[in-house]
Amino acid sequence: MLNQRKRLWDAPPLKSHYDAVIIGGGLHGLATAYFLATRHDIRDIAVIEKRYIGYGGAGRNTAIVRANQRTQENVPLYKEALDLWPVLTRELDFNLMFYNCGNLNLAHSEAALKAMRLQTATAQFHGVDSQLVTPAECKALIPALDISDRPSYPILGGMFHPPGGIVRHDAVVWGLAKGASRKGVRIHQGVEVTGIGVQKGKVDSVETTLGRISTPRVLNAAGAYSAALANRLMGICLPISVLTIQAMVTQPLKPLLDHVISSGGYHIYANQTLKGEIATGAHMDRWPNYTTQTSAHYIKHQAEALTDLLPCMRGVKFMRTWAGLADMTPDMAPIMTGNDPVEGYYQDCGWGYFGFKSCTVAGKYMAQYMATGSCPDILLPFDQKRFEAHRLMGETAALVSYSADN
Amino acid sequence: MKRNLLMNRLEHLPTLRIQPRQTLTIRYNGKNLRGYAGDTVASLLYGCGERIFSRSLKYRRPRGLYSLDGECSNAMMSVDGWPNTNAETTPARHGMVVTPQNVVGSLEWDPMGWMDHLAFVMPAGFYYKLFHKPARLWPLAIKGIRQAAGLGKLQPEATFDCRCDAIYPNTDVCVVGGGPAGMSAALAAAENGLRVVLLEARPHLGGFCDYRVRAEKGGMPLYQWVGALADEVRATENIRVLTHAPVVGVYPDQRITAFQRGSAADVFDLRYIEIAATSVVVATGCIERPLLFASNDRPGIMQIGCAHRLLHTYGIRPAANAVFSVAHDLGLEAAIDMHDQGVTVHCVADAREDGQDPQMLSALAQRGIPHWRGWVAQVAHGRRQLRGVTLSNLTGTFKKRIGCELLVASAGLTPLTGLVTLAGGALAFDHHTGFFLPQRLPPAVQVCGRIRGLHDPSSLSADGTLAGLRAAADCGLNLNREIARAEAAGAAAPGAVRGSKLAMAPGKGGKAFLCFDEDGTVKHVQQAMAQGFDVPELIKRFTSIGTGPGQGGMPGHNLPLVVAHSQASPDSDPQPTTIRPPLVATPIAAYAGGKHDMAKRTPMHAEQLTAGGRMERVGEWYRARRFGADPGAQDEIIGVRTNVGLLDASTLGKFRIFGPDAVKALQRVYVGDMTRTVPFRTKYAAMCNEDGCVIDDGVVIQTGENDYYITTSTGRAGQTVEWFRYHTRYDSWDYHMVNLTDAFGVINIAGPNARQVLAAVTDADISNEAFAFSTCRDLLLRGDVPVRAMRLGFVGELSYELHVPASYMAAVWQMVETAGQSLGIVHFGLEAQSTLRMEKGHVILGSESEQRTTLHDIGLGFLWCRTKPEAKTVGGAALRHTADQPGRLKLVGFKMEDPRSRAPRDGSPIVDARIRGYVCTARFSHALQEPVGMALVDDDLVRPNTRLGIYEDGCNGTLRHAMVVPMPFYDPKGLRMRM
Amino acid sequence: MALSLTCPICGLRNGYEFRFGGADKGPRPLEEGLTPAQWCAYAHLNTCVAGVQLEWWNHKDGCGTWFVARRDTRSNREVPKEDVQ
Q: How far is B22 from chain A (nearest CA, A)?
C-alpha cells in the first residue's frame, strides 16, 4: 500500500507512432488519456508535456469543485464531474482527497439574489442539491462572517451547495498519471510540440523537439497555452483571452471555515484546506499575458475584501501568493471541438477558471469524441461555431469585463 | 537557583540591545515572566528558562529556539490572540499574553507525542495512499486530519483592531538591508545627492556585524564600526531609514512592498509600505543553512547566529556547556565568544578540511577548545531536551559521543536571494561559494555584500559603495570615474569565500529534518525521488517541504543540494526552487489597513435619510430602495399612480458632447439615427456592444448646433466617455465630451399631480401645450435657479425630470417638497420605480436583459436604424444577423393563471421537460390588482396565452403557471404620461 | 504593479490605471456585407500571441486617452518601437 520505491508513472522513450497524441500533461490531457485507455481501449497514447505534468493551471488553481452553474448545458456536465471524484479515487487507488464540505456563495445585492434564485432552481431542476439561505443561516454555516451592515456590501443572503467542496489538485494530476501509465499511456515530460502535420485534410503527424510522431489524432489540451498553440500550429484564431489570475494562502490554522465561501460582489473565494491553510483569490488582471506575475495591487485588494466579510482574518498571515493563467471565452463557457478544421484534430480549451472542476468529465467525453470520431451529445453546445452564430452560452449574465468590447 | 542564574543577564556587554534597567513582564502559559525592554518574546522566554517552544505539525516533536529571524515555525505562538506569531521577531511588550500553539497537554508532556512513533506510516505523500479504502473511512479521516492539522487557533469573533497606516514613498534608490554593505550603498548614493530609502527587517541597523566584538575593521571591533556607519546613515538627511520593516514583495519597475511594525511611540502598529524607486540595491545578506543530521530538530540545537545573538544582543548565556558543529568562521568566532562568557565549549567540529581563519584557530587553541577538521554532528541525543551528540568524520568511519546541553549546528550560509528572483533576476549554482548566486540581474537592480559570497568587512564596504554608485548611475548620474575607482577598491579587497559543500551528515538512520514546519526529512525526499518526482519543485509539492509557515526559508537551499546529491548523474548542478511573495509572512491586517470605502452619495443623501429612506449600495452609489417598512413599497406606488411622487435620480450619467463631428460619434455608438434629432426634443436611444446586446439606454437632446446633452444609465456613467472614444479611435473626429454626472443632480417629479407641483415653483408656462411630452426646456425655478427639465415617462405617469446644478439640489428638493406638501407628495425609491416601470413594460438593462440578449430580443428593435451602414454602428452587424434569427430568448409579459396568487420570485426558471427561460421581474401590480411580470423565454413560447410553467426554488417539482400576455400591462396607449 | 505603461500624455504609470482595449485589428470593417465569420473575427477572435503585440490602451484613471502600445505578452513589458522587428 505504501510502496515508496515504485514509480507512480513510467518515463519510457518517445516512439515514432502513437494511436493518439495529447498535447499538454495537465488535468484535461491526462484525464482524456486515462479515459481513452480505460473506456475505449486506446492505449497507445503519448501525452506530450513541455515542462512537467501539473505545471500549469493544474497546480495553480484553488481546487474548488461544484455543480451550481447557471445554464442547463453546463449543470449536468459539472454534476457528472462531481460524481466522478469518488469513482476515480477508487479506480486509481489514489486518494484524491475530495473534501465534500459544500460551497456557500454570498449575495450583496438584489440582482445577485435574483441570479442565485435562477442558479438554485436550475440546480434543483437537474437534481443537484442547492439552497438559498438567509444571512443568519450564512452565519450559522460560517460563524466568522460579518452579517451586520458594517461591510461595504452587506450580506443579503446566500446560496448553499452541499455537494461541492475541494479536491487536492496535485493528487488528481499524479493519480491520473499513475492510472494512465499503468494502462500503457506514455507520458513524455520536457518535450515540446512544434508542429502538426496534415495530409489531405487529415492529421497524420506531430512534430516534437524529440522528432516526428505519426498519429491519426491529436488533442490540443494545452490549457492556457492552447489558443496560442492552435494559432501557431494550425492557423486557428479562437475567441480567447489569456489572463493572469492570482491566489494566495495563509499560514495554517485550526478549523475556521467549514465550507468554501465565495462572493461575486467582492470577487473573492476562500476555503480552508485540510492542512489548515486558507486559500483565497479570484482576481484577474484584465489584460492578456502569459506571465504568472503576482501584483501588490491585488494582494492588498484581496486583504481588504476578505477582512470586510471575515474580520477575524485580519489576524492571519498570508504566506504565499501565486498566479496562473485562465483562457477566458466571451461567454465563460469552454470550447470543445473535434475534426475541425481537419479530421483528427481535437481541441479542449477556453475553460477559464473552471478547468479544474471540469477536468474529469471533459476527459471522459473528449475521450469518447476521439475514440468514436463523433461528438457526444453533451458536448454539442460547446462548439466554437456558437460565437459567429451569435449564440453565446449564457453562463454569465453580466457583460464580461475582460473583453475590449464591454 | 537555576532560574535566578538565568534571570541574570550579562549586563555589561557593549553590544546589548536590551535595556537591563527597564524590566517588563509578560504572561506566558499562566506564568508571569520577566524580561527587558528590547527583548523579543523569544529571547525573554529563553532568558526565563523556557526551552520547548512548540510541538511540530505532524510528529508532534518538541521544538526549541533555532534561529532568531523567524525562518521556521518553531517559535510560533499566540500573542495577544494573534495566532502564528513568531516569537523571534516580535518585540516583547509589558502585559503581553503569550500561549504556545498546537499542543494538547503541555509543551513538555504532549499526549499526542506518540505521533512521532508513527512516522513509518507517514512517508512522503502518505495521505495520497491512505484513508480512501474503504470509502466510508475517508469522511472520518477528514475530521481527524482537520483537527490535527493547522497551527494557530483563530476566534471567529476576533477583530484584531490595531492602528494601521500606509505610505507610498517615491525615491531614487531603495536599499534593502541595513548591514554594512547596505549602509555603504545608501551612503554612496546619498552623497551624490539622491533620495534614498533604507529598509531593514530587524529593529536596528548593523546586520551580522552588530553583535560581533572580535573581528575588526580598521582597528575597530565590527560592532563599533557598523555603529558608526549607522550613526552616519541616520545623520544623512536624504536617507530615510525604515527599521523593523521586512520587504515582502518586489515587482517590475523597481516597486517594493514592505510592512513595518510600530512601537508604542509610533503612530501605527502595522504599516504597509509601497515604494516606487528608480533603482534598487539588494543587500539582504545571508541566513544559515541548516545542518542535516539525525534528530537535528531537538530543543537545544540552534544556529550560530542564534546562539551568538542570544549571548551578545540579549545578554543570555544559552547553556552551561556546548558543542559546535559548523562549517564557517562565524562558528569559530561564536565558540570563542561563548567560551569567554563562561560557557564550556567541549569542542568545535568543523566540516571544512581547510580554509579557516588562522587567527580564529589560534584563539581556539589558546583557550584549549579542540577544533576537529572534517567532523560533523551525526546524531543528536535526548528527547525533550538535547543530552548529547555523536560526532563523526565526514565519511562516518570514526564516531565520538559527547554530552552537552547545547549544540550549535550550521552547514554554512545561504544568501537571501528572494528579492533578486522576484525582481526577475536569475540564479545559478556557484561551485566556489556553494550558493545560488545572482547571475543575470534585471535593469536597475544592484546586489552587494554577503549575498554575493563576500565576507570580509572591507569587501562588504567596498561592494556596498560600488552598488550605491551604480544605483546612482541608474538614476541618470554620470559617475563613471567614481565607479571605476570603486571597482578597483572592490577588486583589491578579499573576494568571495569558499563555502562548505556539505549536503548532509553521514549516516542514514533517524530523522534528518530539511523542513521543521512540515516535518519533512531527507528520507521523504528520497522516497519522492524513487516514485518519479525528479525536480525540486515537484518534490516540494509531493513532500510539502518548504510549503509551511516559513516557506523556503529553511529548506530552500538544502533541498536542491540533497536532490542533486541523490541524483544518479552527479554532474548536474542543483536547481533552485521557486520563491513566491510575500518574502515574509505578512498579517492580512497590514495589507488591509484601515477601511477606506469609496462610495458615492448623491446631493440628496441626507434629505432622503431624514425622509425615512432605506439606503442601499447600488454599484458605487448609495440609493434609497424604499421609504417605509413595506418591502413592496405599495404606498409609494399608489402615491405616484394617483397623486405625485419625488425620486432622486441623480446617479444617472449626464454628458455634454459637442463639436463639428459630435453627430458622427453619436451615429457610431447609438443604434438609432442621430442625424434626425430636433432641438430640445428628447430622443430615447440605445447603445449596443458588438454582439448587439444592449448595454445602455438614455435620452439624447440636441441643445444647440453640434451640441448635445445625453443621459446614460447609472452603471454606465463611468465608461461612457471611454466608450465613445474607443469606438471612434481610428477616426480623428473633432468632438469633445464632458462628464456632468456629478455636476448635476436629478429630481424626478412623477404622477398625475406633477404639473401642479412644478407650477408652484416656476413662472414658466408648463402647460401641456407649452411643454409637451418628449420635450426638454431650460427653466428658472423661483426666478433664479436654472434647471433643465424633461418630460419623460419611465414610470408611465406625467413626469418631469429636473437636472439641477448639484450645488442647488438641496434648495430645489426642498422647494419641490414644500410645493407638494399640501398635495401629500410622497418620496419613492428604487423598489417602487421598478414596479411602476414594469407595469409599463419598460426594461431595466441587466434585469430584463443579459449578455446574450440583443436589442431585438427585448423588443427594442425599433430603436435600431438599419439604413445607416456608413455610420458603422457599434453592434450594427450583429443586429442585422440576428434581426430574424429563430431560436433566441425573447422578452414577454405574463400574468399568473391564478390572479390571486403571489408574484413568482425573480430569477425562477420557466420549464417544461427542460429549461425554457426565466422570470426577469414579477411584482404585484397595484394598477391591475394582480401579479404581472416579464420573462425571457424561448421564442416558440412568445405567443399570447402560451402557458408557462414556473419552477421556483424549493418547489419540489410543483410548477406554478402563468400565461403570456401583451405588454405594457398598464396604460397601453401611453395616455397618462402625455397628460 | 505587474504592469507599467507609458501614456503618451502622462508618462510611465502604474498599469492598473489603464484599461486594455484589445489587440490592434485596424479600423472598423464596413457593416454592409459583413459575414458572420468576418464579424466574429473582428469582434471576438484573437491570435493570443505569446510575444510582442500592438494593442490599444486607455488611461482610464488619468487623462482618458486611447493609445497604441507595444507589449510583450510573455513579460508584460512595453517594447520600444526600435526593438520591434
A: 29
The answer on A267 and A363 residing in a single domain is no
Domain of residue A131, residue span: 103-162+241-328
Amino acid identity, residue A282?
A: A
CA distances from C18 to A292, B689, C9, C52 (A): 19, 20, 13, 18
Q: Which tens digits make up the pLDDT trace of B18-46?
A: 999 999 999 999 999 999 999 999 999 99
Number of separate domains in chain A: 2
Nearest to C60 among B722, B727, B877 (CB): B722
Is residue A111, in this structure, part of any structural domain at all?
yes
Chain A interface, best mutation among C16, C19, C24, C46, by max A CB count within 10 A = C46
Please give the Cα distance from B500 to B510 (Å, whole number). 23
A contacts of B878 (beta carbons < 8 Å): 390
What is the SS3 assignment for C78? Answer: strand
Which among B57, B150, B906 has CB closest to A117?
Answer: B906
- In Å, how far is C32's CA from the nearest CA of chain B? 6
> Is the pLDDT higher at A174 or at B102?
A174
| Cβ(B174)–Cβ(B199) below 8 Å | yes
Percent of chain B's residues with pLDDT above 70: 99
Which chain B residues are within 8 Å of C77, Cβ to Cβ?
A: 252
List of residues 6+ apart from B488 with CB closer than 8 A: none
Segment B137-165, tens digit of pLDDT: 999 999 999 998 888 999 999 999 999 99
How confident is the model over B261-317, as pLDDT tens digits?
A: 998 899 999 999 999 999 999 999 999 999 999 999 999 999 999 999 999 999 999
Query: Which B residues in the span 209-238 are in contact with C, Cβ-Cβ below 8 Å?
Result: none
Region B102-112: mean pLDDT is 81
Q: What is the CATH number of the domain that holds A212?
A: 3.50.50.60
Domain ranges across chain C:
49-75
Mark residue B396 as left, alpha or beta (left: phi above 0; alpha: psi -120 to 50; beta: remaining). left
* Class of the CATH domain delimited by B293-410: alpha beta
In a mutational test of the B interface, the residue from C4, C6, C28 whose CB has the highest number of chain B CBs within 10 Å is C28
Q: Report the alpha-carbon distance of residue B730 to residue C22 in Å, rounded.
A: 14
B55, pLDDT greater than 90: yes
Residue A67 in any domain: the answer is: no
CATH number corresponding to B655-738: 3.30.70.1400
Chain A adjacent subunits, 3+ CB pairs under 8 A: B, C
Q: How many residues does chain C have?
A: 85
What is the residue-wise DSSP string for B31-52? EEEEEEET-BHHHHHHHTT---
Kindly state the average pLDDT of the residues B914-918: 98
Same domain, A253 and A305: yes
Query: Which CATH homologous superfamily contains domain B886-979?
Result: Aminomethyltransferase beta-barrel domains (2.40.30.110)
Domain boundaries along the sequence of chain B: 2-116, 164-287+415-492, 293-410, 520-589, 636-650+743-831, 655-738, 886-979
* Cα distance between residue B169 and residue B273, in whole Å: 8
The strand pair at A103-107 and A157-161 is best described as antiparallel
Q: Does A406 reach chain C within 8 Å, measured CB to CB?
A: no
Instruction: Round the average pLDDT of chain B to a whole number and report it.
Output: 94
User: Does the beta-carbon distance from C43 to B691 stay under 8 Å?
Assistant: yes
Asked if the B164-287+415-492 domain carries CATH number 3.40.630.10, the reply is no
Q: Which residues of C touch A (CB under 8 A)?
A: 1-3, 14-16, 19-22, 36-37, 39-41, 43-50, 56, 71, 73-76
Q: Does B143 touch chain A (CB under 8 A)?
A: no
What is B636-650+743-831's CATH superfamily? Probable tRNA modification gtpase trme; domain 1 (3.30.1360.120)
**What is d(CA B860, CA B845) in angstroms, rounded to the nearest whole number?**
12
Suggest the residue from A226, A232, A290, A386 to mutate for an interface test with chain C (most C CBs closer than 10 A): A290
Q: State whether residue B873 sits within 8 Å of chain C by CB.
A: yes
Of B248, B726, B879, which to mutate for an interface test with C (greatest number of C Cβ within 10 Å)? B726
The last residue of a domain, from among A291, A306, A328: A328
pLDDT at C84 over 60: no
